[in-house]
Amino acid sequence: MAQKNDRWGRLLPALLSSAALVGAPAVRAQAAVTGPGAPSLNFYGVSGLIDMPSAQPQPDGQFDLSVSHFGGTTRTTMTFQISPRISGSFRYSSILHWGSPTGQHLYDRSLDLRFQLLREHGYLPDLAIGVQDLAGTGVYSSEYLVATKSLGPRLKVTAGLGWGRLGSYGAIGSPFGPRPANNFGYGGTPHPGEWFRGPMAPFGGIEWQATDRLDFKLEYSSDAYTQEVKAGLFQRRSPWNAGVEYRVNKQLRLGAYYLYGSKVGISLQMALNPNDRPTGGVLGPGPLPIAPRPARAADPAAYATGWVVEPGKVDSLRDQTAKLLAAEGLELQSLSVDGTTAQLRIVNKQYKSVPQAIGRAARALSRSMPASVSTFQIVPMVAGVPASMVTIRRADLERLDFAPDNAVALRKRVTIGDPTAPFALSAPGHIPRFTWGIGPYVRASLFDPQDPVRADFGLRLGAGYRLAPGLILSGAVTKKIVGNLDQSTRVSNSKLPHVRSDANLYDKYGDPALERLQLAWYRHPAENIYTRVTVGYLERMFGGISAEVLWKPVASRLALGAELNYVKQRAYSDGLGFRNYQVATGHVSAYYQFNGGYFGEIDAGRYLAGDWGATVTFDRVFANGWRVGAFVTKTNVSAAQFGEGSFDKGLRIQIPLSWALGYPTQAGKLSVIHPLSRDGGARLDVQGRLYEMLRDNHRYAIDQDWGRVWR
Asked: Which of 231, 360, 379, 511 could potentially form a cystine with 97 if both were Cys, beta carbons 3.0 to 4.6 Å apart?
């Protein structure tokens, strides 16, 4: 399409830039983000005007989901504010008749990153730099530099420069040289040599917040939509777009727009922030009150330790403590007491927050233990393994119960270390013990070009049997109620062993399915050392044996581990049979906990298809259980062997039900989103890996959520 120079297109950015740089001072950057003027999202699902980006960041940690549609194009985007200055977006787009009136329906995946160069302060604007579609097919490939300035509490102006798609209309030159021809190959690989190259074009716009719920937007777009216009999806008669957005509530925003002089568009934007619960706070019953002891001078006999040798006294204390704990959703595994110290080992069945479970256990001990017991040692147990030991002085609990800033004061007096192993009186019925449960499940298949969204809904029956300390037999059976995963006719064209790409055959022939059936043995054989051996049907597609060892000091940010597996591929029927493919696979792993709730992991070794390589994972984990992250795997499989996507990568998202409902519960499964499931870089999905089980019970994670110890 021929491009013409629009003198208003050249003039507007200059005017907006001047306003942004010399306008009235900002109120405060944080107030602009969290108040009524919080930044909305554009059609690409990032902070922006209508089709163009703006420079304001979202609140730290916010997770945004948006859906927009106009001119035969639908974009669904997930955006996460990784840190105050960095955000990332994953987008899935549907475009009719790509490239020509008879073109095929295009389903496109793209990834964005943006960095906040400046935060608005005084006369300085917000300033951001972004790369759009940095590792996809190049359909939306573009880069931009953009500034946004608040002119009072309700008016914002934005001006920017774009390259790639955002430099395709009204270009004012190519200051960094020509843009190389796009050769994305199998997709999924960044091409930094193309970034900020080729024609550069200005864009900009204005946002006016008329009321606390109603916003109006006007923008000048630098996107020519060359391929969409060529396909006849719409006529681009004007570079000007206008729209109105209505804020339904703090989480939901709706928008309607008139775009490019010819089309009406709509958008839905949903914002979720881990630091902002939908219920406004934590619901559910409060904890037991602490029972203070009488003053020693007033009742010295109460502090005598002769009760230790009274027949049946310790049994009575154990049973009384078990009842108090059961009312709090905690299970007493064992209790060891002498005249001055009580060590309580608990199984936390209810609370996502480990400090909350510890605090409630301490309150129970304050009500059941004789006055002479001055020290509480509380040991969280995980799969029969003592994970850590939190030592609390009883006097500190009594003195700080109603003190201001009592969580901080208590933490200064508490020690968290490796558990000791004194003689312990186990609770009756703790071992052996049978548990079971039934609930719904959802299994989804995303991004299949034949049908981008498929899903099954059904019931999962799970059961577990504790045979001995650390020895657990468990399994799960599923039965689909409704769904269409079995209707997929996709045939794998993988050049590697089909360790994941035949997943649709398990959906087709495996209902009902024995999802897993395994015997796991967990041990803590030495200080800082944990082990696991698991045998059986380990996951939906593989069965065999898996062994793991982990070095993880309770107070260390660093952990090191190794895992070795020998597995065989299961039959498609998800029953008891196997196929012929078998493989030895395993990894050595390093884990590190950074400040701010960031976690890094590197796994290097052999994968299910026999390929060798490494996976790098980076997560942000919030104290309330929210978790958002991403992983990338590179192996010795070439892009041609791997197929579309070039290498394995994906997102990890977990939103705990306790956050959404406000009630304490441990429910909330980690969901992995693969833009494309292939065979290269596939790892065994064995349950109960040691680091994930232990991490929340060690010092760094406990400290992160320590504020809940009194709740």
From this structure: 231
